[in-house]
Design a protein that fits this description.
The protein has a 5-stranded parallel sheet with strand order 2-1-3-4-5, with helices on both faces. The chain has 202 residues and is of the alpha/beta class. The protein starts with a strand and ends in a 13-residue tail after the last helix.
């Protein structure tokens, strides 16, 4: 089984990337191949219409990642909360790919907050990021609050009870993601999921 973890923060050495690395460690320990694509440093320029016109610059940039996403059976989307929102780079990410890469594949949302927030990005992703690419968010999600105090490699930096809780909950949620990935694989292999007349969601 192969998953891709999207680290949605523009910042280098972010808390989102810390969480993404931890998720990768858990999945790898379970025998699942898990690659991280980080939006640190804004590696994807803003979408423009030439992406639909076979622009060679876009193809050179996106083709390797498109192949990785297409080969993935599920996704983990790690997003910080910035001003109550998903970062613009992550929203931009969802404009790039469609049915060949993301459609009818399960995804686990993990929101992170340095304080007690984190709920708004979950609502935003569920509301507006799936319509045309048809990614399937799990009914389960995780909000990691006070993220600087958990999931650190240096155990002295962690709040023990909260750290234990998040580690256990992440492992449990990733198990659900794997079961959804197994269940949806034969669905994608069947006919009738795509119709050129209804390429976009309503």
């Amino acid at each position: 089984m192969q998953f891709t973890i999207i680290s949605g923060s523009h910042r280098h050495n972010s808390q989102s990337e810390k969480v993404a690395n931890y998720v990768q460690t858990v999945l790898s320990a379970q025998g699942t191949q898990a690659d991280i694509f980080s939006l640190a440093g804004n590696p994807l320029p803003l979408w423009d219409e030439s992406i639909w016109e076979g622009n060679p610059k876009w193809q050179q940039l996106l083709d390797p990642l498109s192949a990785q996403l297409a080969a993935s059976q599920g996704f983990v989307i790690v997003t910080p909360e910035w001003h109550g929102q998903v970062p613009s780079g992550l929203k931009n990410f969802f404009l790039m790919w469609g049915r060949n890469e993301l459609a009818h594949k399960p995804a686990l949302i993990i929101a992170v907050s340095s304080s007690t927030g984190g709920a708004y990005p979950v609502a935003e992703l569920r509301m507006s990021s799936y319509k045309n690419n048809r990614i399937c968010y799990l009914p389960e999600h995780i909000i990691i609050r006070e993220v600087t105090q958990v999931l650190n490699e240096d155990a002295t930096m962690n709040t023990p009870e909260a750290d234990r809780y998040y580690r256990q909950r992440i492992q449990w949620a990733l198990g659900i993601l794997e079961r959804y990935a197994q269940a949806l694989a034969p669905l994608r292999a069947g006919d009738g999921l795509f119709n050129e007349e209804f390429r976009n969601g309503m």
